[in-house]
Design brief:
The complex is a heterodimer. Chain A is an all-alpha fold. In chain A, helix 1 (4-24) packs antiparallel against helix 2 and helix 2 (28-53) packs antiparallel against helix 3. Chain A contains 3 helices and no strands. Chain A is elongated and about 50 Å long. Chain A starts with a helix and ends in a 14-residue tail after the last helix. Chain A has a single domain (4-90), classed as Helix Hairpins, CATH 1.10.287. Chain B is mainly alpha-helical. In chain B, a hairpin with a 2-residue loop joins strand 4 (229-230) and strand 5. In chain B, helix 3 packs antiparallel against helix 11 and helix 14 (298-319) runs parallel beside helix 19. Chain B is globular and about 110 Å long. The chains are: A mainly alpha, B mainly alpha. The A-B interface holds A 1, 3-5, 8, 19, 22-24, 51-52, 54-55, 92-93, 95-100 and B 652, 655-660, 662-664, 667, 713, 715, 718, 720-727.
């Protein structure tokens, strides 16, 4: 069988790719997609451990996180839409209103 | 010891409550009830409080001590400090000595409160004046009624505070305000001595209660206070020297007397109460109260006597040339206090208290009389502009004359008996430096008595006799008497006349008792029992068979002091009977430098100012500019805030609103947290291979890390881990001892067999095992 570490390295790599996307891309929609990618990496970890222990606890939690991700994506997209209505661009660097 | 237990706490409490009432409500009362009624309320509260204390005191003294035959009355108001075995209670006591002091304080205080109604009638802050005056009465009563040095010191500080408040009463005038400060600061120097003295005594006796000190002194020269040394000197000597330093501050002796003449900046009744009758006598009271302790250090006693005599003459010579009526009386007070210390230093405790009492009467009368005069002359205090006031102020003049006779020591008036007794004991008592000290002290005292008679009658003649030398308008419209101010004067003059009869000397025919001496006998008994070099009493060669001074010597000295007084009065009359005369000016110019030295108070204030005050100011300036402004404000406060600001400025660059940067920092932080968790897991043994976590700083056991074993397939092993079997919990933790061990982790119930694929209702029912108890 595959050692468990393979799955965990996969999830870690996906997480890093998602994190890189969040940090390095300037388009808001790409950022949201990268966030989804990170959430999915977490789901993989949960399912992996569920398989390791032999019970379905992790899978249940994975279902919950999928639901949370969906809700969060919906809200995020709603925010993006309202930003678009206020401005014309999608560049994340323009949204620097939190400065002091 | 026959003790009664009555609630003495009321005696200082009533003036204290009066003070609080006037402080809190005074201004509102005067504003809302109008000027006349407001003032009535204020002074009725104040006078009522003091009157209550006065009557209560007198009733306790006469009923408990005199008629009831108790030795003293005590009361513990509350337990102030209790730490282990050391218990300090707020103990008040009235024994025979305190009884005398309390009666004087409350009696004279009451009369002065009544006088103040007239004197301060036009003052705006009437309520503040009476509040402070009541506060002073409370503090003074605590001082004299204290049963231990601690309580006395509370009162000591309290009267110092009230003195400051009342001297600086007209605080808008910066000179008067600084006079108040001067009084407080000079007093403070003395208080430093008192505190050190108290600590030294405590180190030996482990209690500052007067009973404990007395018990420690009871064994005379063998007492621990004498045998234990500090810097090679008996503790009794050092402690009493330090306490005497405090007395010089409070009672205005050399070298700490300079505050008293300046204290005349306060209202005149204040000068009468505080700086004549009561506060300045606190030093004398302290010495007489601690007389066994002082008796055990003859050197201190002789020092006290010498300084007393020197001060008496020193102040008297300054008083001769002063032109401000209150300053003359101030120097007179210093001089008379010198007499009291002379008596105390020679071991004549009764004489010191006697003079304290009589001095309170006639000095208060003199000060109040001068207050009436100042008020009448429209706030003029210069006697060169007075004169002939007897015509329009007969009562004031009469009482002033009686008091002048009393202070000069003319027979039948009070001062004669007390001053004569002091001079007698100055000559006749044994001391550490006899007989030289006796001659010096007596000589100084005699010349001081001569000067006293002279300057007092100079004052009287220039003020009340001759022609009025002020302006006509004042004479016509202002010079008058008020009954409310004359009434206390008459009472005090009466007391100055008859007050001497409580201390009639034995030599006078008629075998009349020395009432005060017999009354105070229990207080002074202990110190007379010490022998050898600590002997207190008449010295060799002058004593008769009873241990008293030979009557021939005593009568001779009596005649001498009366003669001296008469000479002084005669000279004053010759020079001043009709006002400042050319003869007086001639004498003054002939004695040129002496006159100038006396007039300028021997430049003591200037010397102190340059030698002490200026260096202190410079040091203070350095502390302020370098220590406070530069170091604390600049480096300390400024440094801290500057550092915070600089760091903040650096960090605020990070808050540029760029979301991506925020996320990056977030992720870096998460990474750091995870890394540290990985580095310090709570796992110490995983599977068969121990994992040695990184123990940063040896804190893991402290932080509660517990060794945990994880069995079964885990992250770090290669065992097959895929299994759908539900199994028991695979983590075992070390069981706490004695707890319900053996509780196997709960297991899931055994699985039910699946239902057979036969149709519903056919076949036998599957066997179902009920879930058993684990």
């Amino acid at each position: 069988m595959l050692p468990i570490t393979h799955f965990l390295y996969l999830a870690f790599a996906l997480f890093l790719i998602g994190a890189a996307g969040v940090l390095l891309r300037r388009n808001i929609l790409i950022v949201l997609m990268s966030i989804e990618l990170m959430l999915n990496a977490a789901n993989i970890v949960l399912v992996t451990f569920s398989r390791m222990w032999g019970n379905t606890d992790g899978q249940v939690l994975a279902m919950i996180t999928i639901a949370v991700a969906a809700a969060e994506a919906a809200v995020g997209l709603a925010i993006v839409v309202s930003i678009f209505r206020a401005r014309t661009g999608t560049d994340i660097d323009d949204l620097a209103l939190l400065r002091d | 010891m026959n003790e009664a237990n009555l609630t003495l706490g009321w005696i200082p409490l009533f003036p204290l409550m009066g003070a609080l009432f006037n402080l809190i409500f005074g201004r509102w009362i005067m504003r809302s009830l109008g000027d006349r009624i407001g003032r009535e309320v204020v002074h009725l509260v104040a006078i009522g409080a003091v009157a209550f204390s006065c009557f209560y005191t007198f009733s306790i003294v006469f009923e408990a001590l005199y008629a009831g035959g108790y030795d003293r009355v005590v009361h513990r108001v509350w337990t102030w400090m209790a730490s282990g075995e050391t218990v300090v209670g707020f103990d008040l006591m009235i024994d025979r000595l305190t009884a005398v002091m309390c009666m004087v304080v409350t009696g004279v205080g009451l009369l002065i409160h009544i006088f103040s109604v007239g004197y301060m009638a036009k003052d705006g802050s009437y309520w503040r004046y009476f509040a402070y005056l009541n506060l002073f009465m409370a503090a003074m009563l605590i001082l004299v009624m204290g049963k231990s040095l601690v309580i006395t010191f509370v009162g000591w500080e309290g009267v110092g505070l009230c003195s400051y408040l009342l001297i600086g009463y007209y605080y808008a005038d910066s000179e008067k305000a600084s006079a108040g400060r001067k009084a407080f600061i000079v007093n403070r120097i003395g208080d430093f001595g008192v505190i050190l003295g108290m600590l030294l005594i405590y180190a030996v006796t482990h209690s500052l209660d007067y009973d404990a000190i007395r018990a420690a002194c009871a064994s005379g020269p063998d007492s621990p206070l004498v045998t234990q040394l500090v810097f090679g000197v008996p503790i009794a000597t050092v402690a009493t020297m330090l306490l005497f330093l405090g007395c010089t501050g409070k009672s205005a002796q050399l070298p700490l007397y300079t505050w008293l003449p300046d204290a005349m900046a306060g209202p005149t009744p204040v000068s009468a109460l505080i700086h004549a009758a009561t506060m300045v006598t606190a030093g004398v009271y302290l010495i007489v109260r601690l007389n066994p302790l002082f008796a055990l250090s003859p050197i201190t006693m002789s020092t006290v006597a010498l300084i007393g005599a020197l001060t008496a003459l020193f102040a008297a010579t300054i008083g001769i040339t002063q032109n401000d009526i209150k300053k003359v009386l101030a120097y007179s007070t210093i001089s008379q206090l010198g007499f009291m210390f002379l008596a105390a230093g020679m071991g004549a405790w009764v004489a010191a208290i006697f003079h304290l009492v009589t001095h309170a009467f006639f000095k208060a009368c003199l000060f109040l009389g001068s207050g009436a005069v100042i008020e009448a002359c429209h706030h003029n205090q210069d006697i060169r502009k007075m004169g002939g006031l007897r015509e329009k102020m007969p009562w004031t003049a009469g009482t002033f004359l009686i008091s002048c006779l009393a202070i000069s020591g003319i027979p039948i008036f009070a001062g004669f008996f007390s001053k004569d007794e002091i001079l007698l004991h100055a000559y006749a008592n044994a001391s550490a430096w006899s007989p030289g000290l006796n001659y010096v002290a007596y000589g100084l005292g005699l010349v001081a008595a001569l000067s006293t008679a002279f300057y007092m009658f100079r004052l009287y003649y220039l003020t009340f006799e001759g022609e009025f030398r002020g302006d006509h308008h004042t004479w016509e419209h202002h010079v008058h008497e008020q009954w409310i101010m004359s009434f206390p004067l008459v009472v005090l003059a009466g007391l100055a006349t008859v007050g001497g009869f409580i201390g009639i000397p034995h030599v006078l025919p008629g075998h009349l008792p020395h009432v005060l001496g017999e009354w105070l006998a229990p207080i002074t008994a202990l110190s007379s029992t010490f022998g050898g070099e600590y002997f207190i009493g008449v010295r060799e060669g002058l004593a008769d068979e009873h241990g008293l001074v030979k009557s021939s010597i005593e009568l001779g000295m009596m005649g001498l002091s009366v003669g001296v007084a008469v000479i002084g009065i005669f000279f004053a009359r010759k020079l001043y009977a009709k006002g400042p005369s050319a003869d007086a000016k001639q004498i003054a110019s002939k004695l040129g430098p002496l006159y100038r030295a006396s007039h300028d108070k021997y430049w003591v204030d200037e010397i102190y100012g340059n030698a002490v005050v200026r260096p202190l100011r410079i040091v203070g300036g350095i502390c302020y500019q370098v220590g406070d402004q530069l170091l604390v404000d600049g480096v300390g406060v400024g440094g801290v805030s500057g550092t915070v600001g600089a760091l903040g400025n650096r960090i605020r660059v990070w808050h540029n609103g760029n979301v991506r940067r925020y996320l990056a920092v977030l992720l870096v932080g998460v990474g750091i947290v995870l890394a540290s968790v990985y580095a310090n897991p709570t796992v110490s043994q995983v599977g068969s291979s121990p994992v040695h976590p990184v123990d940063l700083g040896g804190l893991r056991p402290t932080l509660g890390a517990q060794p945990i074993r994880i069995d079964g397939p885990t992250l770090f092993t290669d065992e097959p881990w895929f299994s759908f079997q539900a199994g028991p919990d695979r983590v075992t933790r070390p069981q706490p001892a004695g707890a319900g061990a053996g509780a196997a982790p709960p297991s899931l119930p055994p699985r039910e067999p699946l239902p057979s694929p036969s149709g519903p209702g056919a076949g036998k029912a599957p066997e179902r095992k009920a879930p058993g108890a684990p």
